[in-house]
Amino acid sequence: MKKWFFISLTLLITNLVSAQFNESPILNKQNEDKKLLNWGYFLGLNQYDFKFDYKDELGFDASGKDLTTVQVAKSFGFNVGLIGEVRINEFLDVRFEPGLHYGSRLLGFPSPLIEEDDALVEVKSTYINFPLLLKASTRRYGNFKPFLLGGVSTGLNLGSNEESLDDNESGTFRMKKWVYNYELGFGIDFYLEYFKFTPSIRGVFAITDELVPDNDPNSPFTGNIESLKTRGIFINFTFE
């Protein structure tokens, strides 16, 4: 299913780009970027990861197994949200993009003190994300316009388990409810006959530690983790 989705998406974008490089394209939505306020929505995919910092490098055991690094298996999730945009000038816009982002990560803990059945922990996250972004565009070329995007965001993790009294020893992985990020990305606005379609790619980088340590400071799960921060990639498709 994912294979055919990406093939169809690639063909769509290829056709859109090739159509815009005609010598005299018919200009669509010529007044689209002259409005002070603009609205839309987005759908997309995400892939979340974690960046770990450790207190100590524990080396390797006799079989060569890394005793420090927590392994992360990533999977695709989905994004959906709204867009509000305020035009500053021909090249700059301020955007607010509240959205719902669902994803999951599978953690493999390396400690030999953890039973094999307990060493794999699935972390499901549902973030309500509130990004405030600055969009810097080039001039419009025919019916397309490239841009760069950057800004800050805060996210509420609905699956954080922060207030739970249980920890990893009881099968509960805990994270802080609120996370603060910076975001950087790029994309292309395509001006179609009836709407503006925008594919974009964005990186999301947490700047705050999200880990809630286990109750035991010497826990084999979290005792050697200094900090845990989310990393992610968003592939969004915007309709305005």
**Overall 3D shape:** elongated
The H-and-E topology, N to C, reads as HEEEEEEEEEE
Distance between the amino and carboxyl termini: 27 Å
Helix count, per DSSP?
1
Evaluate the radius of gyration: 22 Å
Beta-strand percentage range: over 45%
pLDDT average, as an integer?
A: 89
Structural class: mainly beta
In words, what does this structure look like?
This protein has about 240 residues and is mainly beta. It contains 1 helix and 10 strands. Strands 1, 2, 3, 4, 5, 6, 7, 8, 9 and 10 form a 10-stranded antiparallel β-sheet that branches. About 10% of the residues lie in helices and about 50% in strands. It has one helix at about 1-20; strands at about 35-55, 70-75, 75-85, 90-95, 100-110, 120-135, 145-155, 180-190, 195-205, 225-240.
Helix-strand blueprint:
Layout: H1 2-20, E1 37-54, E2 71-74, E3 76-87, E4 92-96, E5 99-108, E6 120-137, E7 144-157, E8 178-191, E9 196-206, E10 225-239
Antiparallel strand pairs: 1-3, 1-10, 2-5, 3-4, 3-5, 4-6, 5-6, 6-7, 7-8, 8-9, 9-10
